[in-house]
Amino acid sequence: MELLNQLTSIADNLSDITKQSRRLRLSVDHGWLLAAKECCEAVNRFGDDISYYLSQFKQITEKPLQEVPKLSTLVEDLKQLQQEFGKMNFDKKANTLSVITEPITLEDVYLGPFEIRLELNRLPELYKSSPYYCIALDPHPAASSDDITHPHVTGDRLCEGEGYTSIRAALEQGRICDFFTIVQGILNTYSPDSPYVSLDNWEGEACYECGYTVDSENSYYCGFCDHTYCGECSTCCRNCDETVCLSCSQQCPHCEENICPNCMKKCCECGSLCCISCLEDDLCPKCVEELEKEDEQSECQINRTDKNAGPDQPQTGKPEIRLAG
């Protein structure tokens, strides 16, 4: 199967080179120099890929052919498998072979036991897709996703990492017990460089807005929508210090601060929303300013009227006071 995959890759690259050669001829005929340059670069890349696949092809063909394991060898291997795991299950109808691991705990995070299930019908697809599953029997998934039951397992699929080659070599050679032992070893190992979710954030909560997982000390609860948020997606109301998410908060148009819904009120004059700190006698700053201007204009009008009044006319600015006698 590995040899077939290499041959398929070489054929695909040759097909791509053929397409690029046609584009190159068309580009040269029309004088499209930039397009011709891109075609040359693409052909060069495909040529490098073909060189790589040919080297892999040579290594595969030079390897000695694997002998088909004898029936007695397979029987002994299955006996060893049963001794190693205590129990082995063969489902004749589904044509699967499975074992159950001991409960797994990594860095004080309990993950529970896993069933390693090998689908025998899919062994010919060994180099196309994974023919086995790692199924959590007592799942304790990451807080951010129910599909992630192990730092290196998502959707019952194991991220094999460096174990990829050894797993396929064991299956190719019929070393069934070695296959299950290798997979179990990967499940009992934690690599902090490439987890789906790190163990440090395993018990945390996912931010409702951005999905980032945060621990309890760095998570914030918004009482207006009943969801948990990270520090980047939440804020604090300037008036009451209440935690509020960015979606529920509103920005006061006057002080431009993030305010919770409880601390936003309507101006009784124009009806616009404003934070209670900016309101003055239930008026927003804009309405207060307009009323002050109207008062100033009224006062100026009164002063002008007083100056234009004749000597026999009473002053309107201040009442005239007369003394008796």
Task: Looking at this protein, list some descriptive labels.
alpha+beta, 325 residues, 4-stranded antiparallel sheet, single chain, Ubiquitin Conjugating Enzyme
Description:
The chain has 325 residues and is an alpha+beta fold. It is built from six helices and 19 strands. The longest helix is centred in the first third of the chain and has 30 residues.
Short description:
This protein has 325 residues and is of the alpha+beta class. Helices cover 37% and strands 18% of the residues. The longest helix is centred in the N-terminal third of the chain and has 30 residues, at 33-62.
Fraction of helical residues: 25-40%
What's the order of the H and E elements? HHHEEEEEEEEEHHEEEEEEEEEEH
User: Residue-averaged pLDDT, rounded?
Assistant: 83
Oligomer: single chain
Largest sheet: 4 strands, antiparallel
Distance between the termini: 129 Å
* Count of alpha and pi helical runs: 6
So, CATH architecture of the largest domain?
A: Roll
CATH class of the largest domain: Alpha Beta
Spatial strand order of the main sheet? 1-2-5-6
